[in-house]
Amino acid sequence: MPTSGTVYEWAYEVSTGDGLYTVVWDISEFSVQASTLSPLILGDDVDTLLAQHLMVGDDTVRGSSGNDGLLGYGGNDTIIGNDGNDFLDGGLGIDDMVGGLGDDTYVLDNANDMISEDADQGTDSVTLQFAPTDGAYVLSANFENLRNLSGQGLVMGGNAGNNQLFGGSGVDDVLYGAGGNDYLNGGTGADAMFGGSGHDTFFVDNTADFVSDRWSDLGATGDGVDEVRTSVSFALVGGDRADIEHVTLIGTAAINATGNALVNELSGNAAANTLNGAAGADVMRGGGGNDVYYVDNGGDRVIETSAAGGADTVRSSVSFELGNNVENLQLTGAVASMGTGNALANRISGNNQLNVLLGEAGDDVLTGNGGQDTLLGGIGDDQIDGGTGEDWVEGGVGKDIVTGGSDADLFVFRSGDFAGLSAGSCDRIIDFSQADGDQIRLNSIDANGANGSTTNEAFSFIGSAAFHGVAGELRYVQNAGNTFVMGDTNGDGAADFMIRLDGLHSLAASDFLL
């Protein structure tokens, strides 16, 4: 490309916001050296100038008050952006670039390029297209963002401000946030990211990424509330991550997050996630998918905001009550604890200790497992299994199917709990066993509710005999291989409630608490 001669016209591609245009200056009346076609000053009406002079001289290019794109090409150039959000690239050579007011972007391709910004002049970014000889670059004051496009792994440092540091693609970078609230993204590759002081955010996309809010090698410890946003499973375990509070799962993969001893906030993505807050009173949000939550602190909170967020399960080693939109609860550990459902159709199971399981509303499934458990179905058509141990089994309102399991269980019925009066619509006991010492408790029901008295009268057990038209009689009938318990509470000679016992049983008054 010539550096001297006669220039007759000068053409530039410019963008005005409505498209890319070519602007031509006719300078055919002037005979000048091409290397002296500077300084060049743009008019305010030109939004973007691709100021690639196609020359190798030392040029001075000044932008307008608009948003300019200023390229120096060859030579040791001086580029001044003035106002606006400017793009400054000195090209080859040792260049001096000043952005001025606005959110400016600088491209550096030489270790000796000089850039400067005054305070409070916008959010300014530096792009590295070269690798420093020592492999490290630290942002100067008043610059906010740094990006590695050198093709080599670098050590990248922030300053006292709020920085965004972006590592290279496919290389292993080391990012130091320093002061301020920083965003650290190593890019693809096995990157190391250190937050420092401030509320820092780390972006993780590789299981080999290293994240710490401490600079142990510099004697600095992190502070602030820090967050990891990750597209791979991530755990806040180990001393290097002990000062990080939050993990947010991103992307579409089914990945997991684990907290630490702090008060953590763990957030899932739209897939099926497992969130474990570990020690501390944690907040866990699952999002979409069939999520699993591990709870070990009475202050832990599980939040599902959408009813369409999948079938979610809490596994808790402490007493826990399900919040909205969470379906299932499993009590774990080796201590007696309580599990409480919500208005959904819950599945709640105990551990091998003494548990209290409350289904609340909905058609619930309660399983006591081992221990002497109390199982209360609440409202709905519930299924209850006490498991081993001497259990209190109470279906509550609705058509309930209950199993006591082994040992002497107590099946509890209250006034208003009963369902229908047919074999297919009444409450049902699957495994009533006289040999185990099972009993049916009816003593909370007033056997003569029609007399207007406030006294809770006991039932009179009449065996398999027919009703006599006397209020308060309790009898049983065997039919079609099953046994039906019936009570008359108003004396009209007809059953007012019915309980089905699977199998044939010759019942006695001792099988009841009347």
From TrEMBL:
GO molecular-function term, one example from the UniProt record: calcium ion binding
Keyword Secreted: yes
Entry keyword set: Secreted
Family matches, as Gene3D superfamilies: Serralysin-like metalloprotease, C-terminal (2.150.10.10)
Lineage of source species: Bacteria, Pseudomonadati, Pseudomonadota, Alphaproteobacteria, Sphingomonadales
Subcellular location, principal: secreted
GO cellular component: extracellular region
Protein name per UniProt: Calcium-binding protein
Subcellular location as annotated: Secreted
Coiled coil: none
Organism: Sphingomonas sabuli
